[in-house]
TrEMBL record:
Belongs to the 5'-nucleotidase family. GO terms for cellular component: outer membrane-bounded periplasmic space. One of its GO terms (molecular function) is 5'-nucleotidase activity. Residues 10-205 form the Calcineurin-like phosphoesterase domain. Residues 251-278 form a coiled coil. Pfam families: 5_nucleotid_C, Metallophos. This is Metallophosphoesterase. The keyword Chloroplast does not apply. It comes from the Bacteria. Gene3D superfamilies: 3.60.21.10, 5'-Nucleotidase, C-terminal domain. The keyword Iron does not apply. InterPro entries: 5'-Nucleotdase_C, 5'-Nucleotdase_C_sf, 5_nucleotidase/apyrase, Calcineurin-like_PHP, Metallo-depent_PP-like, Pesterase_YunD. CDD domains: MPP_UshA_N_like.
Amino acid sequence: MEENIFLYYTNDIHSHFENWPKIVAYWNKQRSYHRQRNEAMFTVDIGDHVDRFHPITEALKGKANVELLNKAGYDVVTIGNNEGITLPHDDLYSLYEEAAFDVVCGNLSNREGPNPEWLKPYTIKTTEKGTKIAMLGLTAPFKTFYRLLGWDISSPFEWLDQTIQEVRNQADIVVFLSHLGINDDQEIARRYEDIDVIIGGHTHHLFKEGEWVNNTLLTAAGKHGVYVGEVILTWDAEANMLKQKQAYAYHLNEQEEAASVKQLLEEYQAKASDVLNEPITYLSQPLPVHWFKETQIIKEFVHTLRSWTDAECAMLNAGVLMDGFSDGAVTRGDIHRICPHPMNPCKVKLQGDELLEVVRHAHTKRFMELKLKGFGFRGEIIGRMVFSGMEVTVSRDRDGNEYVKNVHVAGEPLQMDRTYEVATADTFTFGKFLPGISNSAYKQFYMPELLRDLLAHTLIRIS
């Protein structure tokens, strides 16, 4: 006897709710179809459903995201780094208390005290015909960030070494919900033949028809719910084997929206507005913003960053502020709208020659005009780097390009062999935008504060 089992999934929604009504309508249609055919269907999410850039998620602390997953009939989810390291400890601990689905994340644990009741390493789902499907979840191990927030995160490979055989012994089919990224997914497929399917996320990759690594099928559906994924498994009970597996990702541009979901999102938006309309201070005059100029508000913001981290100097890009402030009341919603990024303050140590190279790179036209996507940045463009505790003298060449002539820290010329403590945004510790910062051996992150918390302090201080 053969049984077809259907898994439908989302990954890296990042609170892009504009696509959610289509997704739920599609799930409902497929659920009705499979029910009529007496076929097993499960719906899963691979993490980063939550993103604090959206007012609903910010105001309701991710609880609306969980309600949306509940109402959409999800069966299993894993968590991404946006759930894990952009929410304060207590908010993550309570996030899934009302979840009607299983939350699986084997490499996460609470540092002090018991784990939350919702947290499971894996779950076993059994179809009406008796086929057992193990679904295990793992998330990207940002150890430093998790530790600062009161969590422990272990190596996915160490966890799999210890647990995969235990999982395999309990199930006919093993499905891995991976918020690790494409490179780790491919390596895991090479190492662990007991995993039948890897449904991936984190790196926003898209496999429209899956990818094979040895005998493991990999799939992923990009980001923001533009695509959704389907996995079709054919289990042969008589032969006791997985006879066939297929994976597809579909664009939902032609799918109609679920009107009830649109209405629900409008209700959440109204609740979020009530929370975010709370004034935090009042301004006697407007504070304009310009991404390629040093304005009063960005200058004061960088001063706050330097003071908050007790650094010798600080730097922050003007593009971190999306808009200026009008005079009058400043609300929590204004702060969130103008600085929506889930980015944290950090401090690094740089030698003088490394700091000079960072400053030079930050003054290049290419860097200032970079349209950065991801790494916590939710803005449009990097913009001009603005400094505190550091004076940078620039000039222009014949083509009009800026170049750095002199750098002073605390009024003294930059010393090439001296170590300086420099505060900035944690975004620059990732990737290779500013190699001197990303390669620094010393990085201190400040959590759970986000940059917008420091912006609020700045506005209160100068108002």
